[in-house]
Amino acid sequence: MSSSLPRITEIRSIGLGRGWSAETGDNAGSTGGTTSANNSDTLVEVHTDAGIVGYGSCYTTKDLVDGALHFLRPMFIGEVAIEPERVSEKMHQSTYWQGRGGSITHTVSGIDIALWDILGKYTGQPVGRLLGGRYRDRIKPYGSLIFDEPGKLRAKLQEAMARGFKAFKMGWGPFGRVSDEMDELMVSTARETVGDECELMVDAGGSEQFWPHGLKWALRTADMLSDYGVVWFEEALPPDDIDGFRQLRLGSSILISTGEVLTRRQSFIPWLESGAVDLIQPDCTKVGGLSEARRIGWMAYDHNILMVPHGWNTAIGLAADLQLVSAMPRARWVEYITPAPLIDDIVATPFKLDEEGYLTIPDSPGLGIELDPEGVKKQAI
Predict the structure, then answer these.
(1) Which of 220, 316, 323, 368 gives 127 a disulfide partner, CB atoms 3.0 to 4.6 angstroms apart?
(2) CA–CA distance from 12 to each of 67, 82, 87, 216 (Å)?
(3) Among the listed residues 17, 19, 91, 77, the one whose alpha carbon sits nearest the alpha carbon of residue 48
(4) For the whole model, what pTM was predicted?
(5) How many other β-carbons are positioned within 10 Å of the β-carbon of residue 100?
(6) Under CATH, domain 134-372 is a member of which superfamily?
(7) Alpha helices in 195-313 (DSSP H)
(8) Longest C-alpha distance within the chain, in Å?
């Protein structure tokens, strides 16, 4: 390897605070929400001896990222910074005993995204082109928000519509946690609010601890959602119930999705091969970065399953998802939390939807976004 290639000199972490009261309301699940900021996301800055800095995002806390960075340091210091897939695979293969699929994998995710950002900046190309080529230059985002009692839910949807969204995913909150009647009331309120021209998706949040529902509840609820033209039903069951998901998919008239808690491409294989889902939802900031998410996307494509990236994270996560879907033969949506300070307040140029409710996929070098240092500082904890 040529010594003139940019090499990694340092990786820094920035913990970000997520105020659940701002994003999810007062009830983020059956255990209730919290009004304090929770460090669920951590940015990483990968520095090189060429002066190029790449940015990534990890879906885990700063303490865990810092511990993983300390452990991984001998594996990345001095490495060529424009070979993301090789460097990331080296870290995956070298840490089977210390964090196979856990916080180390989450940290590698952020490093990998940052290395793709560096490669794009080094070559002057958008990451999507480097991932294999751009099939599209725009994509529809769905505004992702938390279920609430009908009056508050209506206000949330109206606010998202005012921002230009034409698709909406509602999840967690009281859904599946009060009664079937309450579930239908929230969904009927949503359909009445957004009209028939907008898309609705529902996320039950079955990855919450001690999820109480099984297959029969999921089948019954899927029938109800079908009556209101819901596009897909997400996380209706606990995230390890692969056979339950397979039966649900076969018995449901609407699309079935899951996958946000899975990590490593190997974990997705049985879900794709068994026909357990119509949509698969890897999260770039957890699963191993863009390198792993691209492989999962192509495996899904080969099984005629649509990949829709999970994106309840940060502006960097959204930017990575935009580049990823630009490079997939089939793609229809990306997730966009609304409202979300960790997306809207940390970039120099905010994302903006066009008149049709689509986002333009950046074509500038790297991930195509520039962070606002002051905005990041305000969200840092």
Answers:
(1) 323
(2) 12, 18, 17, 47
(3) 77
(4) 0.94
(5) 14
(6) Enolase-like C-terminal domain (3.20.20.120)
(7) 215-227, 242-251, 269-273, 284-287, 290-302
(8) 66
**Helix/strand/coil for 333:** strand
- Tell me the residue type at 108: V
Beta strands 37-48; 8-19: pairing state: antiparallel
Tokens (6 digits) for 67: 């511990």
Mean pLDDT, all residues of the chain: 94
Q: Judging by DSSP bridges, how do beta strands 232-234 and 199-203 pair with one another?
A: parallel
C-beta atoms surrounding 50 within 10 Å: 16
Chain position carrying tokens 């091969």: 273
User: Positive or negative, the Cα torsion across 129, 84, 48, 378?
Assistant: positive
Under 8 Å between Cβ of 109 and 58: yes
**101: which DSSP letter?**
T
User: For residue 155, which amino acid is it?
Assistant: A
**Residues 104 and 275: beta-carbon distance below 8 Å:** no
Structure-token match 């008239």, residue found: 253
- Give dist(CA 58, CA 81) in Å, integer: 18
The Cα–Cα gap between 22 and 11 comes to 30
What's the pLDDT score for residue 23?
44
Confidence band of 316 (pLDDT split at 50, 70, 90)? very high
**Distance in angstroms (rounded) separating the CA atoms of residues 262 and 274:** 16
Tokens of 218: 């999921």
Residue 44 is encoded by which pair of tokens? 């990483």
- Short-list 319, 366, 317, CA closest to 43: 317
Distance of CA 337 to the CA centre of its chain: 10
For the stretch 27-31, contacts whose Cβ atoms lie closer than 8 Å and that sit 24 or more positions apart, written own/partner, are 27/146, 27/148, 27/173, 27/174, 28/146, 28/172, 28/173, 29/172, 29/173, 29/177, 29/205, 29/208, 30/177, 30/208, 31/208, 31/209
CATH architecture assignment, domain 8-128:
2-Layer Sandwich (3.30)
CB 252 within 8 A of CB 219: yes
The stretch 135-160 carries a mean pLDDT of: 98
Torsion of CA 338, 343, 346, 351, to 10 degrees: -90
User: Domain locations in the chain?
Assistant: 8-128, 134-372
Kindly state the DSSP code that residue 59 receives in the 8-state scheme.
S
CB 64 within 8 A of CB 208: no
